[in-house]
Amino acid sequence: MSIINLLSSSLGVRNDIPNQKLALEIAESENINALEELVENLQSNKDKKIQSDCIKVLYEIGYLKPEIISAYLPVFVKVAGGKNNRLIWGCMIAINCITDIYPDKVYQFLSEIIEVIDKGSVITKDAGVGILAKLATLKEYSEDCFPLLLEQIKFCPDNQLGQYAEKALPCINSENKQGYIAILNSRLLLLEKESQKKRLKKILTIKNAY
């Protein structure tokens, strides 16, 4: 049976339970034929619901076993450069998963990823910041990626600020912490919600950024 027939939309189900179940089965079996079929339909199927289900299954697999979707990194980057917002942020989540184990491969697509982040929705930017933060923790990529991460923190919406600042904490060291702290202090002055202020103040007192 075709994997496509097991997707939520093919089954007429209006939730992602079949997709999540399928992702678990593929991750456990490492079914390469199923992966190939999902990736092919992600790129070429004319049914947007099928495409949406395909990327859902693929990034759910990425959460569980990113190494088996890593070969499709160039595909995810290409699709993320398209116009379908659901596919864009789904692909960025998949790329974020791959960054956990193959940061060197993801770094090769840094310029394309930044372009997607700059044009992307909130969910796209969330995944993009995750990618940048993971790359910036590595010495060989920090010089390029940490300033890009700071830029996202500096200009992100207030609702995302705490999350992005927390994601950056593992990147902070004695050489770069002053710029990080300066941006957080400048953003702190402009926050209106007390909950957001409290979260940022807590981050500023963590010893990694103190």
Structural class: mainly alpha
Mean pLDDT over all positions: 95
| DSSP E strands, number | 0
Number of helical segments with 4 or more residues: 13
Net shape:
elongated
How much helicity do the residues have?
over 70%
Determine Rg (CA atoms, Å).
19 Å
Series of H and E elements: HHHHHHHHHHHHH
Terminus-to-terminus distance: 57 Å
- Sheet of most strands: none
What proportion strand? under 5%
Outline of this structure?
With 210 residues, the chain is mostly helical.
Characterise this structure.
The chain is mainly α and 210 residues long. It has a domain of 108 residues. Helices cover 72% and strands 0% of the residues. The protein is elongated. The N and C termini lie far apart (57 Å).
Show the helix and strand layout.
Layout: H1 8-11, H2 17-29, H3 32-44, H4 48-64, H5 73-80, H6 85-99, H7 103-107, H8 110-119, H9 122-136, H10 139-155, H11 158-168, H12 177-188, H13 194-205
Helix pairs in contact: 2-4, 3-4, 4-6, 5-6, 6-9, 8-9, 9-10, 9-11, 10-11, 11-13, 12-13
